[in-house]
From TrEMBL:
GO molecular function, one term: NADH dehydrogenase (ubiquinone) activity
Principal location listed in the UniProt entry: mitochondrion
Protein name according to UniProt: NADH-ubiquinone oxidoreductase chain 4L
Bilayer-spanning residue ranges: 6-21, 28-50, 56-80
Function: Core subunit of the mitochondrial membrane respiratory chain NADH dehydrogenase (Complex I) that is believed to belong to the minimal assembly required for catalysis. Complex I functions in the transfer of electrons from NADH to the respiratory chain. The immediate electron acceptor for the enzyme is believed to be ubiquinone.
Amino acid sequence: MMNMWLLIMMMFIFGNMIFISKHKHLLIVLLSLEFIVLSLFFLLVVYLSYIEYDMYMLMIFLLFSVCEGALGLSILVSMIRTHGNDYFQSFSML
């Protein structure tokens, strides 16, 4: 059980390190965010099965993470259509 907690914490830390350090492309930022969401999902699975609670919260969390991923992909597609690439330096943040 401790190995699972350690693995989840390592996934969360690596996802945050990639999110902080790799901010040149939007696609890498979105993938790191999805990796963080995946580690939080694993954390919820382990925690809810440990306390023997219902898994309905996981379905709601999965619903919101899918919506977040779809929104991120739509932003990526619209950015590539308007600017031609996914570099953060190619557009202003106004």
